[in-house]
Amino acid sequence: MMSDWRDISTAPQDGTNILLYFPRLGSTMGVTFGWWNDDVDAWQDWSTDFPFDGPTHWMPLPEGPK
Question: Hey, where are the domains in the chain?
Protein backbone atom coordinates (compact mmCIF):
# COMPACT_ATOMS: atom_id res chain seq x y z
CA MET A 1 0.00 0.00 0.00
CA MET A 2 1.24 3.48 -0.81
CA SER A 3 2.05 6.09 1.77
CA ASP A 4 -0.12 9.08 2.56
CA TRP A 5 0.41 12.31 0.68
CA ARG A 6 2.89 14.61 2.45
CA ASP A 7 3.20 18.39 2.42
CA ILE A 8 5.49 19.59 -0.38
CA SER A 9 7.68 21.44 2.14
CA THR A 10 8.95 18.04 3.32
CA ALA A 11 9.82 16.70 -0.16
CA PRO A 12 13.42 15.74 -0.96
CA GLN A 13 15.19 18.33 -3.10
CA ASP A 14 18.14 16.14 -4.07
CA GLY A 15 16.96 14.96 -7.52
CA THR A 16 15.03 11.96 -6.16
CA ASN A 17 12.06 10.96 -8.35
CA ILE A 18 8.80 11.28 -6.41
CA LEU A 19 5.07 11.56 -7.08
CA LEU A 20 3.87 15.17 -7.18
CA TYR A 21 0.32 16.45 -6.81
CA PHE A 22 -0.76 19.64 -8.61
CA PRO A 23 -4.30 20.62 -7.47
CA ARG A 24 -4.81 23.00 -10.40
CA LEU A 25 -4.73 19.98 -12.76
CA GLY A 26 -7.41 17.94 -10.97
CA SER A 27 -7.52 14.79 -8.88
CA THR A 28 -6.06 12.27 -11.35
CA MET A 29 -4.46 14.50 -13.97
CA GLY A 30 -2.71 16.38 -11.20
CA VAL A 31 -0.54 13.41 -10.23
CA THR A 32 2.78 12.95 -12.01
CA PHE A 33 6.30 12.02 -11.15
CA GLY A 34 9.11 14.49 -11.07
CA TRP A 35 11.99 15.88 -9.05
CA TRP A 36 13.48 19.11 -7.71
CA ASN A 37 15.69 20.71 -10.36
CA ASP A 38 18.43 22.80 -8.74
CA ASP A 39 19.37 24.32 -12.10
CA VAL A 40 16.05 26.18 -12.32
CA ASP A 41 15.15 26.15 -8.62
CA ALA A 42 11.77 24.50 -9.29
CA TRP A 43 9.94 21.17 -9.55
CA GLN A 44 10.49 19.40 -12.88
CA ASP A 45 7.97 17.04 -14.47
CA TRP A 46 9.20 13.92 -16.29
CA SER A 47 7.33 14.70 -19.50
CA THR A 48 8.29 18.30 -20.16
CA ASP A 49 11.35 20.46 -20.53
CA PHE A 50 10.06 23.25 -18.31
CA PRO A 51 9.65 23.51 -14.53
CA PHE A 52 6.30 23.51 -12.77
CA ASP A 53 4.99 25.73 -10.01
CA GLY A 54 2.31 24.72 -7.61
CA PRO A 55 2.70 21.15 -6.35
CA THR A 56 1.20 21.03 -2.87
CA HIS A 57 1.88 17.41 -1.91
CA TRP A 58 4.22 14.52 -2.66
CA MET A 59 4.80 10.86 -1.85
CA PRO A 60 7.58 8.38 -2.57
CA LEU A 61 7.29 6.27 -5.69
CA PRO A 62 5.95 2.77 -4.98
CA GLU A 63 8.25 -0.22 -5.20
CA GLY A 64 8.22 -2.15 -8.45
CA PRO A 65 6.71 -5.63 -8.78
CA LYS A 66 8.52 -8.50 -7.16
Answer: 6-60
Better-scored residue on pLDDT, 38 or 3: 38
Answer yes or no: is pLDDT of 35 > 80: yes
Could you read off the pLDDT of 10-29 as tens digits, one per residue? 999 999 999 998 877 666 66
Dihedral of CA 60/33/56/10: which sign? positive
CB 43 within 8 A of CB 52: yes
Per-residue 3-state assignment (H helix, E strand, C coil) for the chain: CCCCCEEHHHCCCCCCCEEEECHHHCCCCCEEEEEEECCCCEEEECCCCCEECCCCEEEECCCCCC
